[in-house]
Amino acid sequence: MMDAGNHSDDAQSRHSALEGAADMLLGSRLFVLTGAGISAESGIPTFRDVQAGLWAKFKPEELATPEAFERNPGLVWQWYQQRRRDLRKVAPNAGHLALVELACRLGNFAIVTQNVDDLHERAGSTDVIHLHGKLDASHCFECEAPYISAPEPAADVPRHEQPAKDELPPCCQHCGAYVRPSVVWFGELLPAKAWEAAETAARQCDVLLCVGTSSLVYPAAHLPGIVLDAGGRVIQVNPEVTALDDRATISLRGKAGTVLPALLEAVARRHT
After folding, report:
1. Are residues 165 and 74 in contact, defined by beta-carbon separation less than 8 angstroms?
2. Which end of the chain has fewer beta carbons closer than 10 Å to its terminal beta carbon, N or C?
């Protein structure tokens, strides 16, 4: 394994790892796996850091389960409405934008993300697979029909001091049951089509670019192993040591917003 992070004071080592990663990408079938780290750089708190104000007295597990929604749909809906408002106040960062440019230079590739935000799409990526669902979508809690007309909260609405007890989710236009956010809650399976597409991409790619993920959340953490078992290689981008360090072909230690633009530049030099 080449590791740009074990020699942080060695600029030559970092440069060699970056150049090696760029060479690896050229002519390869690529797919990208992203985690909370890339979104955090845009100002989106990670799932366990999202609690603030009134919400600080709740554990995420107390709000992100089917049982919690059944007990108090208004409370859960208000929490997700707040998260939606927060999302609309941030923008894609340099890491998201670099992935778009890499796709232009290397050929389009699938992005498999564990994030429920739409920052990849807002940056311009077109082939994004959401393993954990999408925060900006809703569907019926009972019949699972998509809810098309859910109003988007205004970005400038101030943070609620407390959720309105009488503000409930909208009702399904088909069966009348409450509508829920289209995200994967604790105890739920990943969307079957999304996971199938992710597994297929992992088996068919030559290189996995793993960005901003701890490689601890399953089943997404299985994907690097699928790539390696199929003879592919893994490039990791992360400022921290992760569970993937011992298996990654190359580790580029740093934040996505710094490392990915540098990787893009290295790839671009080989195209000129």
Report:
1. yes
2. C
For helices 256-271 and 94-106, angle between their N-to-C axes, nearest 10 degrees: 20
Both structure tokens of 239: 């400022």
Active-site residue identified among 96, 130, 132, 139: 132
Q: Is 49 helix (H, G, I), strand (E, B) or coil?
A: helix
- Residue 148 is predicted with a pLDDT of 83
Q: Which residues contact 250 (CB under 8 A, 6 or more apart)?
A: 1, 2, 3, 4, 17, 20, 21, 24, 233, 234, 235, 236
Cα–Cα distance for residue pair 153/132, rounded to 1 Å:
21
Q: Does residue 145 contact residue 175 with C-beta atoms inside 8 Å?
A: yes
The per-residue pLDDT for 58 is: 78
Determine if residue 231 is left, alpha or beta; phi over 0 gives left, psi from -120 to 50 gives alpha, anything else beta. Answer: left
102, 264 Cβ separation under 8 angstroms: yes
Kindly state the tokens that stand for 216.
């601890």
Contact of 128 with 121, CB cutoff 8 Å: yes
Average pLDDT over residues 96-120: 96
